[in-house]
Automatic annotation (TrEMBL), chain A:
Protein name per the record: GTP binding protein
Role: Protein transport. Probably involved in vesicular traffic.
GO molecular function, one term: GTP binding
Organism: Artemisia annua (Sweet wormwood)
Signal peptide, first to last residue: none
From TrEMBL, chain B:
Family: Belongs to the Rab GDI family.
Stored SUPFAM superfamilies: FAD/NAD(P)-binding domain
CC annotations in GO: cytoplasm
Protein name per its UniProtKB record: Guanosine nucleotide diphosphate dissociation inhibitor
GO MF terms held by the record: Rab GDP-dissociation inhibitor activity
Originating species: Artemisia annua
Record-level GO BP terms: protein transport; small GTPase-mediated signal transduction; vesicle-mediated transport
Superkingdom of this protein's organism: Eukaryota
Length: 202, 444
């Protein structure tokens, strides 16, 4: 399965979220996909798979967004999580130096497990909590530049920069990546025109 | 981990992961641990380095085989019946969205020293060199009977009560010869031995219908589908389901000692000095060796080749069944082959398995008839493993132990074990009446 599949100007791209518990991974996705924010977002239960389509310049990009479902807690993310991912957002909390340290560990993990052409974003979340800031934007920007990521500070609470991160990823995704192998099929319990049935010839 | 759980699941094999997922979806609080640092236990798929570590005691596979990461070699090779129980479970749980599948290209049977395509419909049977011209006509009538048979419509039964009539009697009515019976029983109904002949015919008729309906589903050359990147994806996908519904995952937990109270009921699991309390434990046989007994042994050979299995129309993925009678054995032998087309090997390489229920202690000799069909191989690994089944009384100790994976070619027995365990654990029956006729595959 190629990481981005589609034809002409339609791309499908798997996007994975990484980062420590509490950094705001699910909140970022919920803000992006549903425009919602919950002050006390519970640990991810029941939904950890979203899709959202974005239009950028010449193309539409359909993101399939995978959340960690808590499997990051004891470092038990399965290889399947990284498999075929075209993009990743590594999230940390600007009010926690620990979460930034661990974000760097996730970047290393991704460089080991993920595909080398992956578009990687570093998101310093909770940017609305300026008074509690522990990680400077400069520090994060330098790290990101040295490691081939692009960097933004975000706030799922105020929505600042949230859509921008996803848009920037969509812009950076390689167009018309050659398919390595004819793609497989997804089994669905509805006729083929269902939600996940976006096909290469649609 | 010092919390209390409804269920602690030990081992991340496919059965344990399906159960973990179903129980989490039911709202139970599940802790799932594995002693290994990878998912899948016995049902994982290994890369080359892992394969060499396991069988050669070295982590240096030869460079000419290509990148380790391009290999996903199943430890329990099986294909998935396109209309079978595992597909129902996948659709029921919506786990399908994490997986990509492809049809398996061919289904073949070994008969009188040759490999033949399995005819699955009356039309195919008419073309098959497996039967003479008169036999073909008789077989066609039998296939049409099976195709039309509907359990709920007595007029399709032609006056026979298949819950009483044996398979032998049903087949005798159509006058089929032993050769035809052999491929129907083993290559279509997928029986492993000949006991079915003296059992009620209904089971065999249902199995033949499953084969035919599965074959029709994706218009592939076989009734099977198989996930891209190997079967090791399946336990990972169900583990993700469990996690999405609140299940907690811990890999690389050594020991995992099951603790019992004075009445002999399970009360928790200890690992690395910490004890998690629980009401029930679900595990594979290796976590409770005192509560299982050995019931058999599987012998297999895992081969890396640079060509497809000969005489299978160059199929990049294929199954060949060698019925016991053709080999003078008591149980069937199976060949599997998968390749680049399912992302389990780099381009130009093929992974083939020969497997059977072991009847001797010498897999090299026992597997020879299957190996002879493969032609030259680049690498070969022989392996035997014992099969265990639980011998405890779950109502007394609250331990629910899965049965080891058998040598069958598909997952029907795997899923039936899981469903039985689910009923014992929860007291409920899992309703798998998903609408398979509406189910289809989306090309991504």
């Amino acid at each position: 399965m190629a990481s981005t599949i589609g034809s002409h100007n339609n791309l499908n791209a798997k996007l994975v979220l990484l980062g420590d518990m509490g950094a705001g991974k699910s909140s970022l996705v919920l803000r992006f996909v549903k425009g919602q924010f919950l002050e006390f977002q519970e640990s991810t239960i029941g939904a950890a798979f979203f899709s959202q389509t974005l239009a950028v310049n010449d193309a539409t990009v359909k993101f399939e967004i995978w959340d960690t479902a808590g499997q990051e807690r004891y470092h038990s993310l399965a290889p399947m999580y990284y498999r075929g991912a075209a993009a990743a957002i590594i999230v940390y909390d600007i009010t926690s130096s620990d979460s930034f340290t661990r974000a760097k560990k996730w970047v290393q993990e991704l460089q080991k497990q993920g595909n080398p052409n992956m578009v990687m974003a570093l998101a310093g979340n909770k940017a609305d909590l300026e008074e509690k800031r522990k990680v400077t934007a400069d520090e994060a920007r330098i790290y990101a530049e040295e490691n081939g990521l692009f960097f933004m500070e975000t706030s799922a609470k105020t929505a600042a920069n949230v859509n921008d991160v996803f848009h920037e990823i969509a812009k950076r995704l390689p167009r018309a990546q050659p398919t390595q192998n004819p793609a497989g099929m997804v089994l669905v319990d509805r006729p083929a025109e269902g939600a996940r049935a976006a096909s290469c010839c649609s | 981990m010092d919390e209390e759980y409804d269920v602690i699941v030990l081992g991340t094999g496919l059965k344990e992961c399906i159960l973990s997922g179903l129980l989490s979806v039911d709202g139970l609080k599940v802790l799932h641990m594995d002693r290994n640092d990878y998912y899948g236990g016995e049902s994982s798929s290994l890369n080359l380095i892992q394969l060499w570590k396991k069988f050669r005691g070295s982590d240096k596979p030869p460079a000419h085989l290509g990148s380790s990461r391009d290999y996903n070699v199943d430890m329990v090779p099986k294909f998935i019946m396109a209309n079978g129980a595992l597909v129902r479970v996948l659709i029921h749980t919506d786990v399908t969205k994490y997986l990509y599948f492809k049809a398996v290209d061919g289904s073949f049977v070994y008969n009188k020293g040759k490999v033949h395509k399995v005819p699955a419909t009356d039309m195919e049977a008419l073309k098959s060199p497996l039967m003479g011209i008169f036999e073909k006509r008789r077989a066609r009538k039998f296939f049409i009977y099976v195709q039309d048979y509907n359990e709920n419509e007595p007029k399709t039964h032609e006056g026979m009560d298949l819950t009483r009539v044996t398979t032998r009697e049903l087949i005798a009515k159509y006058g089929l010869d032993d050769n035809t019976v052999d491929f129907i029983g083993h290559a279509l109904a997928l029986h492993r031995d000949d006991r079915y002949l003296n059992e009620p015919a209904l089971d065999t008729v249902k199995r033949m219908k499953l084969y035919a309906e599965s074959l029709a589903r994706f218009q592939g050359g076989s009734p099977y589908i198989y996930p891209l990147y190997g079967l090791g994806e399946l336990p990972q996908a169900f583990a993700r389901l469990s996690a999405v519904y609140g299940g907690t995952y811990m890999l690389n937990k050594p020991e995992c000692k099951v603790e019992f109270d004075e009445e002999g009921k399970v009360c928790g699991v200890t690992s690395e000095g910490e004890t998690a309390k629980c009401k029930k434990v679900v595990c594979d046989p290796s976590y409770l060796p005192n509560k299982v007994r050995k019931v058999g042994k599987v012998a297999r050979a895992i081969c890396i080749m640079s060509h497809p299995i000969p005489n299978t129309n160059e199929s990049p993925s294929v199954q060949v069944i060698l019925p016991q009678k053709q080999l003078g054995r008591r149980s069937d032998m199976y060949l599997f082959c998968c390749s680049y087309s399912h992302n389990v090997a780099p381009k130009g390489k093929y992974i083939a398995f020969v497997s059977t229920e072991a009847e001797t202690d010498q897999p090299e000799i026992e597997l020879k008839p299957g190996l002879d069909l493969l032609g030259p191989v680049d690498e070969i690994f022989y392996d035997t493993y014992d099969r265990f089944e639980p011998c405890n009384e779950p109502s007394l100790d609250n331990c629910f132990i899965s049965t080891s994976y058998d040598a069958t070619t598909h997952f029907e027995s795997t899923v039936s074990d899981v469903l039985n365990m689910y009923s014992m654990i929860t007291g409920k029956v899992l309703d798998l009446n998903v609408d398979l006729s509406a189910a289809s595959a989306a090309e991504e």
